[in-house]
Amino acid sequence: MKLIPNTVFYDISAFMALRKVIFNVHASGRKIFILTDSNTRQFCLPMVMEELGDLSQHLVSITIAAGENNKHLQTAMEVWEQLSVHQAGRDALLINLGGGMVTDLGGFVASVYKRGIETIHVPTTMLAMVDAAIGGKTGVDFMHLKNNLGTFHGPSWVFVITKFLETLPSRQYRSGIAEIIKYGFISRPELLKQDLFNIEKSAIQSIIGRCIDAKTNIVQADPEEQGIRKLLNLGHTVGHAFEAMALMKQQDLLHGEAVASGLVCELYISTRLLSLDTEVLDHYIGLWQSAFLRYPVAEEDDAELMNLMLQDKKNRAGKLLFTLISAPGNAVFDIPVGQELIEESLQFYRSLF
Ligand SMILES: NC(=O)c1ccc[n+]([C@@H]2O[C@H](COP(=O)([O-])OP(=O)(O)OC[C@H]3O[C@@H](n4cnc5c(N)ncnc54)[C@H](O)[C@@H]3O)[C@@H](O)[C@H]2O)c1
Q1: Burial tier of 287 (Cβ tally within 10 Å: 0-12, 13-18, 19+)
Q2: Is residue 150 a contact partner of residue 142, using CB atoms and an 8 Å limit?
Q3: How many folded domains does the chain comprise?
Q4: Do the domain assignments include residue 106?
Q5: Is the pTM of this model over 0.90?
Q6: How far is 334 from 158, CA to CA, in rounded Å?
Q7: Which domain holds residue 333?
Q8: Does 193 reside within a domain?
Q9: pLDDT score of 144
Q10: Rounded to an integer, what distance in angstroms lies between the CA atom of residue 220 and that of residue 229?
Q11: Cα(175) to centroid of ligand 1, in Å?
């Protein structure tokens, strides 16, 4: 299975390579579709169409409603319907232009349509550039559970165009930084030494590149998450439970914010089980408090949060298995964590409000 894109192209070379791919695909008589959400249709599609010039007339545009609360089967069905109405064959190409919601949902749609059509990801958020567009995981949320339905279906190409970040709301931008911090903790501690909330324009591409490199190395070693790929889930066991709860209660919480909050609990558990230096936890808490929307959870939510964590895809034989760290850059997966310690971490988390 090919989960690593042929090549990741950046900025000017990305537009050049995209033009070439579209020229070749069109020349061979294949249909080309471009999926956007309502925001990327407004902010990103015009730039792509302009760069493509005459080639843009060969693209059929499909737009879905924006936001995580639309990352579900109904929306996927709307895209399948559009593909069918426009007679997309098995050789059709679907370009996903958007954040992680669009690349996850578009990737899922492509993996199932006619048993799988080719995709290209053009990520437009920081989070999708550093994480969601890489590694070939697709998915939609189902019964309030994050990515409960999904497939592995890698894009042929990923085109990272950092100019798209100029229209991204700053809260969304920060949400992406949470995943960069995650890479810092699991394998690239040098990233934690940077002022990630004030990255110089000239350094953005190199930071994105380092994250893509970190993820690609891990995915190459373990494409289907049998082992080392689980490292990428640091912060996500608790984070996904927070995110699912917010979806259930229709609260406003972004994926990266949920991960940033989940990291507090998981670093706390790391201090208890893997002797992570408490200074690392304290320093991270300072960063989290200053930079991210903090998701408040009440004591009466703990049972539901435990319930949600029990549904985590990493669990085996009913045991909750976490990815934890013993030091920044030194992560370990499949650590069983008891319910009491998880609840203690949630109590600790509450004490920070
Ligand atoms: N497949 C994976 O490996 C993986 C990894 C991490 C996260 N994810 C998934 O990614 C999703 C989160 O991704 P996200 O944070 O990119 O969210 P998102 O795709 O919902 O985008 C966030 C918001 O920004 C808007 N937007 C996107 N690009 C814009 C731009 N350039 N200018 C203005 N507005 C823009 C979107 O319309 C949306 O409203 C979650 O569903 C998460 O589960 C997947």
Answers
A1: middle
A2: no
A3: 2
A4: yes
A5: yes
A6: 30
A7: 225-351
A8: no
A9: 85
A10: 9
A11: 9
Which amino acid makes up residue 179?
E
* Whether the CB of 215 sits within 6 Å of ligand 1: no
**Which two three-digit tokens encode residue 111?**
């993996």
- Tell me, rounded to whole angstroms, the distance of Cα 91 from its chain centroid: 27
Q: Cα of 254 to ligand 1 centre, how many Å?
A: 9
Does ligand 1 come within 6 angstroms of the Cβ of 312? no
* Catalytic positions: 115, 137, 179, 215, 225, 229, 233, 236, 240, 255
Question: Which tokens hold the place of 104?
Answer: 């996850």
Work out the mean pLDDT of the chain and round it to a whole number: 96
Ligand 1 center to 240 CA (angstroms): 15
Q: In which residue ranges of the chain is pLDDT below 50?
A: none
Residue of minimum CA distance from atom 41 in ligand 1: 101
Per-residue pLDDT tens digits for 205-218: 999 999 999 999 99
The DSSP element (H or E) to which 340 belongs, if any, is: helix 339-351
Q: Ligand 1 centroid to 39 CA: how many Å?
A: 11
Which residue has a Cα nearest atom 30 of ligand 1? 168
Residue found under tokens 């394998």: 187
Is residue 235 a contact partner of residue 182, using CB atoms and an 8 Å limit?
A: yes
- Best mutation site among 103, 124, 233 for ligand 1, i.e. most ligand atoms within 8 A of its Cβ? 124
pLDDT score at 317: 75
Q: Which of 168, 188, 207 is the last residue of a domain?
A: 168
Q: What is residue 1's predicted lDDT score, i.e. its pLDDT?
A: 57
State whether the beta carbon of 243 lies less than 6 angstroms from ligand 1. Answer: no
Closest CA to 35 of 141, 108, 139: 108
Last residue of a domain, one of 147, 168, 189: 168
**Pairing assessment for the beta strands 93-98 and 32-37 based on DSSP bridges:** parallel
Please choose from 147, 172, 173 the residue to mutate so as to test ligand 1's pocket, defined by most ligand atoms within 8 A of CB: 172
CA 225 to centroid of chain Cα atoms: 15
Per-residue model confidence (pLDDT) at position 22: 97
